[in-house]
């Protein structure tokens, strides 16, 4: 572009021309550029770290802090029992199972520990209390596999509690976080079995330790001011505000995360710190936004490679601080059981294309308790409404027919495969779907990855 005449100077023929700048000469990054690049990298790391906690908060807010929400359980320290199997109308969590009615409860452990009492559960009936902390780590298990079906009382303790277990307590389960929840599952063997499930649910009890001991209760913890859950904000730069709120209940930090938290602090992350994006310099906000986008892209790519639950759910020790795995686990199936309790695998398909799943006789799902395949619509991952009201199929499905050689063939599609095969049909929408296989009490072969679901095949495939 030519300069205005008043600023132009004519070059004389004998003037030396300046040497050209080599095209390959790198542009030197300024200190500010390096600072924003670092902020972007930290924001990416922090969003992945926070993702599972934010998904957990969605449930916490609706169940504890939002009395008008359909999912409200009644606040802390109380069970909300469901005695019916999940239906397409239930939207408490994504990919709910349709094998075991749920019971939900949250505990606030800041003032004192809580005692969980379970009744004697008849032998042959599977149940599990999965206890989950704010990080979504499965930190405790009570139930058929872990502790048996006898009546007992257990103590759930929060960070920093150092007391002794009182008389009558079978086991103490310490939590890293002051707020915890249980997703309790009790096997339901058909509509005629509902009264039996309700009896087990009625025998489950939650008490503050002081009430259990019949002693004076300690001073109450300060009331919690829950920020309203906003999905758009949670998945933007405003995730920092939600993370800061949740970090208040994770103190002291785990020793393995001391340096991580110091790094996060450089972009405004810390327990209880306020966060207002409007106060940030534009360059810093842009860096954080870019970091969030980077995190979402990495999660999307990683999710494509994670097709079973092996290595996906568990305790902190099991996951070894792999925050990307923790995030993908929350995205694919929040509150999934640890692999010892249940194995998960799945498919994605199109209901317009009739498909089948064939298990050979020697490769049926290896379940100590039972197994199922449940179908969900995409992208919401809720149960699919259909005229049969069949949302899952498995070894407890009435009328299920095995092949002549002892194998099993299941049919998946929008249109019935015919009357002679309908007993083994799992209805699907006319479009994309996800199907999740669950094996309760998986064998070592499943746990070690030596057994997997067979592939989804076109329905015209010949089977033995």
The pLDDT mean sits at 92
Count of DSSP helices?
10
Distance N to C terminus: 77 Å
In terms of DSSP E residues, the strand content is 15-25%
Total beta strands: 17
Largest sheet: 5 strands, antiparallel
The secondary-structure class comes to alpha+beta
Q: Might you state the CATH topology name of the largest domain?
A: Immunoglobulin-like
Total tally of structural domains? 2
Helix content range: 10-25%
Order of helical and strand elements: HEEEEEEEEHEHHHHHHHEEEEEEEHE
Any idea of the CATH class of the largest domain? Mainly Beta
CATH homologous superfamily assignment of the largest domain: Domain of unknown function DUF1254
For the largest beta sheet, what order do the strands appear in spatially?
1-2-8-4-5
Query: Which word captures the global form?
Result: globular
Please tell me how large the radius of gyration is.
27 Å
Low-confidence stretches: 1-18
For the record, the CATH architecture of the largest domain stands as Sandwich
């Amino acid at each position: 572009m030519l300069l205005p005449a008043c600023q132009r100077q004519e070059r004389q023929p004998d003037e030396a021309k300046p040497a050209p700048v080599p095209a390959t000469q790198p542009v030197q990054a300024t200190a500010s550029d390096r600072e924003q690049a670092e902020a972007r990298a930290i924001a990416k790391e922090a969003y992945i770290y926070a993702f599972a906690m934010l998904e957990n908060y969605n449930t916490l807010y609706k169940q504890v802090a939002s009395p008008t929400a359909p999912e409200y359980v009644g606040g802390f320290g109380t069970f909300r029992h469901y005695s019916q199997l999940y239906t397409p109308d239930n939207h408490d969590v994504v990919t709910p199972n349709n094998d075991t009615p749920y019971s939900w409860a949250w505990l606030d452990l800041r003032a004192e520990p809580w005692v969980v009492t379970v009744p004697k559960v008849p032998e042959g009936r599977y149940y599990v209390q999965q206890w989950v902390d704010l990080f979504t780590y499965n930190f405790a298990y009570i139930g058929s596999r872990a502790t048996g079906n006898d009546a007992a009382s257990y103590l759930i303790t929060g960070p920093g509690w150092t007391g002794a277990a009182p008389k009558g307590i079978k086991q103490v389960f310490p939590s890293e976080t002051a707020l915890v929840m249980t997703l309790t599952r009790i096997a339901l063997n058909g509509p005629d079995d509902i009264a039996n499930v309700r009896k087990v649910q009625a025998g489950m009890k939650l008490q503050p330790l002081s009430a259990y001991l019949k002693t004076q209760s300690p001073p109450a913890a300060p009331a919690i001011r829950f920020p309203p859950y906003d999905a758009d904000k949670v998945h933007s730069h405003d995730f920092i505000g939600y993370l800061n709120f949740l970090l208040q209940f994770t103190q002291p930090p785990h020793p393995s995360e001391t340096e991580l938290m110091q790094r996060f602090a450089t972009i405004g992350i810390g327990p209880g710190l306020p966060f207002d994006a409007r106060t940030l310099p534009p360059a810093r906000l842009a860096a954080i936004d870019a970091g969030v986008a980077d995190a979402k892209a990495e999660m999307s790519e990683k999710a494509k490679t994670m097709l079973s639950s092996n290595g996906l759910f568990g305790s902190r020790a099991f996951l070894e601080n792999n925050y990307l795995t923790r995030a993908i686990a929350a995205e694919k199936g929040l509150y999934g059981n640890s692999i010892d309790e249940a194995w998960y695998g799945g498919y994605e398909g199109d209901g317009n294309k009739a498909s089948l799943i064939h298990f050979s006789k020697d490769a049926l799902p290896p379940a100590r308790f039972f197994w199922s395949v449940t179908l969900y619509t995409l992208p919401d991952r809720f149960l699919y409404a259909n005229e049969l009201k069949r949302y899952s199929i498995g070894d407890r499905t009435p009328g299920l027919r095995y092949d002549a050689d002892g194998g099993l063939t299941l049919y998946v599609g929008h249109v019935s495969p015919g009357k002679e095969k309908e007993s083994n049909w799992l209805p699907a929408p006319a479009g994309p779907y996800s199907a999740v296989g669950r094996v309760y009490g998986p064998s070592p072969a499943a746990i070690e990855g030596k057994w997997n679901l067979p592939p989804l095949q076109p329905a015209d495939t010949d089977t033995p």
